[in-house]
Amino acid sequence: MSAQESDNLRIPGPTPLPPEVRQAAAAQMINHRGPQFAALLAEATAGLQEFLGTESDVLILTCSGTGALEAAIVNTLSPGDKVLSVSIGHFGDRFAAIAQAYGAHVVTLGFEWGTAAAPERVAQALAEDPEIVAALVTHNETSTGVTNDLAALGRVVKTAGPLLLVDVISSAGCIELQSDAWGCDVAVGGSQKGWMAPPGLGFVSMNPRAWDAYRKARMPRFYMDLGKAKASAEKGQTPWTPALSVLYALVAGLRLMRAEGLSNIIARHHRMGRHTRQGIRAAGLELLVADERHASNMVTAVRVPDGWAVKDLLQRLRTDHHVVLAGAQGILAGRVFRIGHLGHCSEADIDSVLAALRQVLPRGGAGA
Ligand SMILES: *Cc1c(COP(=O)(O)O)cnc(C)c1O
Q: Are the C-beta atoms of 344 and 268 separated by less than 8 Å?
């Protein structure tokens, strides 16, 4: 094995790939306008619907998660539309920035990074401004390791009436997600997070309310036109040449997920999250997220101990222990590092991260 092969990759996506998925990704190309492709697309779509908790259309796009967020925006909104950005971190801000780039009038309801969105404040913001036509929400904020109460947020948005567009990129396929029951009109995912597949595919669910919005939406769209994607999907195709190898891998990942079962997957992520947080505290380190009820089961942000530059800490972990962790974005850059524990992850993977941290930071973090 090369050095890279032996790395314990614990960033919040891309995640390591199980052997079955890697093998699937290596398969020969097929005709993307033929019957084999139609069968694969149907299997992937059904699997995604199951784990997103929706019976609505799910369109599979060749792009990263950000591309799929962009698709959600341009297919439901018009320039000048007033949109409420409920942001608890970097990815919430990015969702809003996309809407802004396409001319939406974005009203921001921000919460301190490391905390969750308060549903009553969202209800209040929507009640005070009846012109708001859509709310942008992040289910799991990967930059801080906070999971919002999406069921509660969905209820208040539904009561007020605007469209609910949700970034479920780092939650789908890992924790409970009931898009239909929770009132998500549009849910957006990406292949490299909980699905144990490589980066390259994004997905967008569209319920009937979202399709109504689509028919009125005037933001420019071409490659990301979900109406074209739906028309093609009905023929077992995609409008443009899809990332076939990633689709092979996604289907293989979904087969593994179906074999494990949704409730077992949710329970495993719960164990991984708790195990990581307990191990971090036991090592004398400090978690960013104080409220255990909102601590993410997919990613944990840890405060950088005094006397350490995050760059040096991550380098020591990588070169001496083959443990690859992530830094942070935006206002948390340099202040926290992040451990990914989503998708293909076991207790042993987390134990090796914790062991490496204890060796590099022997006194619970005091500088080297
Ligand atoms: C990873 C991630 C994204 C961005 O996805 P890309 O595939 O890097 O474009 C967006 N939102 C959340 C919550 C994420 O975790």
A: no
